[in-house]
């Protein structure tokens, strides 16, 4: 049997590396991987030459320029330009060289700031985006619409998935610009080591957030990629074809902080600084479309936090400073 040649763009990132870990265990797949130094996805000619020479069957497009609020606010040009260029180059080259299947990985920030909760796929383009990451969100929306447009005009089978907040191995634990789970894991870890009497968490602790382990995200991505085209088309619409990926369950930031304290063995006080911003009160994805397609998450938040904390402890040399 001929192996499927599968290109995972962004294979060193958190999601891309999880997809590679799972696909790498299969006998029917031959992975095609390139580092940023080997293939610059901003270079249209280089991307085209790569696809011309590699006979790719499937693409997982997990490459993206990502960052926290500060980075998004400081470098909006970089976030919109680089993400639009990468996805345009890869999706167009895939079409030009007759790649049968492609999966584009987006972000839940595509949805309006004040979207109805839980957020259905149909909330896309129904309101104003969160201003701090609007350029990034616009680029991700463009990726969805690129896939849909190639499907509509050329009959391609290019699909998009929108994950909720992700965490897990290969996350960014930088002290200043990481997301909430790695930031809390690191803060509680350091407080445990130093026997700090308390840990201060920003905000009131009342906002609700949904979290998905990256191994579940990888499994969902592969599940969606491998659905029969008829099943996919029955559960989507030509101009509303993306699918939310999440747990369908959320928790308060207070509950999250208390669980992180347990996982890290911290025994001091957890204090909430209500003078700091809370952000959106709730951000939960409606994942009924994904459930209808037969996929459900497997990693509980407590399990996922424990394994992520273990990974952090084993790899914390790279997060010094």
From TrEMBL:
Active site: 136 (proton donor/acceptor)
The reaction(s) this protein catalyses: GDP-beta-L-fucose + NADP(+) = GDP-4-dehydro-alpha-D-rhamnose + NADPH + H(+)
Protein name: GDP-L-fucose synthase
Keywords from the named record: Isomerase, Multifunctional enzyme, NADP, Oxidoreductase
Binding site for NADP(+): 10-16, 105-108, 140, 163-166, 179
Gene Ontology biological process terms in this record: 'de novo' GDP-L-fucose biosynthetic process
Family named by the database record: Belongs to the NAD(P)-dependent epimerase/dehydratase family. Fucose synthase subfamily.
Species of origin: Atlantibacter subterraneus
Pfam families, A to Z: Epimerase
HAMAP family according to UniProt: GDP_fucose_synth
Molecular-function annotations in GO: GDP-L-fucose synthase activity; isomerase activity; NADP+ binding
Enzyme class: oxidoreductase
InterPro entries according to UniProt: Epimerase_deHydtase, GDP_fucose/colitose_synth, NAD(P)-bd_dom_sf
Domain NAD-dependent epimerase/dehydratase intervals: 6-230
Function, as annotated: Catalyzes the two-step NADP-dependent conversion of GDP-4-dehydro-6-deoxy-D-mannose to GDP-fucose, involving an epimerase and a reductase reaction.
Site (Important for catalytic activity): 107, 109
Pathway: Nucleotide-sugar biosynthesis; GDP-L-fucose biosynthesis via de novo pathway; GDP-L-fucose from GDP-alpha-D-mannose: step 2/2
Binding site for substrate: 187, 202, 209, 278
EC number: 1.1.1.271
